[in-house]
Write a structure and sequence with these properties.
Elements lengths: L5 E10 L7 E3 L3 E2 L13 E6 L12 E9 L8 E11 L9 E6 L7 E8 L10 E7 L1
Antiparallel strand pairs: 1-9, 2-8, 3-8, 4-7, 4-9, 5-6, 5-8
Length: about 140
């Protein structure tokens, strides 16, 4: 069964990159998972990517979203849990549509989870729109 209950305390918002060939990282959501145990909460995660204009993502240029985890609250030294969960590609002179990806955290997830958004070469400032990452219970 899919989880659907939302809690504002486990939702992060992150502005997209403001320049080409840039990576931005969200703040981490604390799963409270310790180093000696397995994460057993019954929850899903949801990554939501906003629509981007053709100025932000010209034809064939991309924004790529990855789910990461870290033992550090500042998300330093992260490892990738799921790569390229969303890839938005500009097309037809219209930018790229909004997109979502839903998944489940593994039992061996590190304490903090978040996302990175990577802008391709020749993308433009997209910092006026934000992606979200949230846990659903």
């Amino acid at each position: 069964m899919l989880s659907s209950l939302r809690d504002a305390q486990v939702k992060n918002t992150r502005a997209l990159p403001s320049a080409a060939s840039t990576t931005v990282t969200s703040t981490g959501i604390d799963t409270q998972n310790g180093t000696n145990g397995n994460f057993v909460a019954d929850c899903d995660f949801l990554v939501s990517a906003p629509a981007v204009t053709t100025t932000m993502a010209p034809d064939t240029r991309t924004f790529t979203y990855n789910v990461i985890h870290s033992v550090n609250s500042d998300m330093s030294s992260p490892a990738t849990l799921y790569s390229s969960v969303i890839t938005q590609t500009g097309a037809g002179g219209a930018g790229a549509a909004a997109a979502t990806f839903r998944g489940r955290l593994p039992k061996n997830v590190r304490r903090y989870v978040g996302i990175t958004v990577v802008s391709d070469a020749s993308t433009a400032d997209a910092s006026t729109v934000s992606a979200t990452f949230e846990l659903l219970f």
